[in-house]
């Protein structure tokens, strides 16, 4: 089931996300609405693919038709994983290596 504006539910928390592509070609989930606190510049390229770039100190402002986006990982409300309880250490005598005797 898709939600408006091409968003899909997050597999972890169910909130709406849009999938964008980074400069390295990796997929990144972003929140579908513009967020003034976001650190990504999102835009649609000529082929219709949603692209994102990080706003860095070298390029801190939005360029062209970019809009400010927030990565979904920063706001994901996925359930917290259960804490792993370590298995108790085995105590006792370690067997000695087996030797052939004639």
Distance from N terminus to C terminus (CA atoms, Å) equals: 74 Å
Number of DSSP strands? 6
The number of helices is 0
Radius of gyration: 24 Å
Spatial strand sequence of the major β-sheet: 1-2-3
- What average pLDDT do the residues reach? 85
Helix content: under 10%
Beta content: 15-25%
- What overall geometry do the principal axes of the alpha carbons give? elongated
What is the structural class?
mainly beta
Major sheet summary line: 3 strands, antiparallel
Q: Which regions have little confidence, pLDDT < 50, spanning 5+ residues?
A: none
Query: What string gives the helices and strands in order?
Result: EEEEEE
Write the layout of secondary structure elements.
Layout: E1 8-9, E2 16-21, E3 27-30, E4 40-44, E5 50-54, E6 67-69
Antiparallel strand pairs: 1-2, 2-3, 4-5, 4-6
In short:
With 102 residues, this protein is an all-beta fold. Helices cover 0% and strands 25% of the residues.
Describe the structure.
By secondary structure, the protein is mostly beta strands. It is 0% helix and 25% strand. It is built from no helices and six strands. Strands 1-2-3 form a three-stranded antiparallel sheet, with no helix packed on it. The chain has a three-stranded antiparallel sheet with strand order 5-4-6, with no helix packed on it. The protein is elongated.
Primary descriptors:
single chain, 102 residues, mainly beta, three-stranded antiparallel sheet, 6 strands, 0% helix, elongated
